[in-house]
Specification:
8-stranded mixed β-sheet; disordered N terminus; 232 residues
Length: 232
């Protein structure tokens, strides 16, 4: 319970505790035609946070028995849909281990409370890029909670990034909805419709599979893809 009650080790964000790594991306450039991805983990011993900024999930951070047991990492990526940028954040609530199922409600609560800290880490770690493109501060934040329990398997819109980093109570600032799907046909106003997100739960407003989203693969190589055939 102690471990779950403080997933990221601190009640407030401390820049001195954050280690940032840029893997294959420029720290000042805006995402062009590929998602810009964040992988955030922390050390149980030092309470330091490690943030990898790259074009895909940094799987090397997710190895080891502790990470596989606690599943307290947060991954996120910038997406462009119809020329609008948005930040999509993913949290593992339960599934893969029965202990996580037993405390799913607590994990959901704690993730909600600590996500502003996580978002602040993203903003601080990618400061140069955000300073070069301040309009991204107004981009909407979509939070995906992944769970084998339908009650906690959902998507929430947390509003603009500049506001989401300062939430005091997620319940009063969020709404459950789904992000706008990309164009059906090949275009220049959307990022590619495939992204490497390491969890396999479907999301829609009613706890059933969304017709606009299909899932392929599993574990750390699960890919979320918009199912164009169904949309057509």
């Amino acid at each position: 319970m102690v471990k779950v009650a403080r997933l990221f080790g601190q009640a407030i964000f401390k820049a001195s505790k954050l280690n940032v790594m840029f893997v294959g991306v420029d720290e000042k450039k805006h995402p062009s035609n590929l998602p810009r991805t964040y992988t955030l983990t922390h050390s149980d011993i030092t309470a330091n946070l490690t943030l990898a900024i790259s074009h895909s999930i940094n799987n090397s951070q997710l190895q080891g028995w502790a990470n596989r047991l606690y599943r307290d990492e947060v991954v996120a990526e910038w997406r462009k849909v119809k020329s609008k940028m948005s930040l999509h954040v993913h949290c593992h609530i339960s599934g893969d281990h029965f202990l996580l199922d037993l405390i799913a409600e607590l994990r959901y609560f704690i993730f909600c409370k600590e996500l502003p800290l996580v978002l602040k880490a993203f903003v601080y770690g990618d400061e140069n890029m955000l300073n070069n493109y301040p309009e991204l501060q107004d981009a909407f934040v979509w939070v995906y909670f992944h769970s084998n329990i339908p009650k906690f398997n959902k998507v929430e819109c947390w509003g603009p990034l500049c506001e989401a980093t300062s939430h005091d109570d997620c319940k009063t600032h969020t709404c459950e909805t789904l992000p706008e799907p990309p164009c059906l046909d090949k275009c220049s106003c959307c990022f590619p419709t495939v992204s490497t997100i390491p969890w396999s739960h479907c999301h829609d407003s009613h706890g059933e599979e969304d017709d606009s989203v299909a899932i392929a693969g599993g574990n750390l190589v699960t890919k979320y893809m918009y199912n164009r055939n169904k949309q057509k």
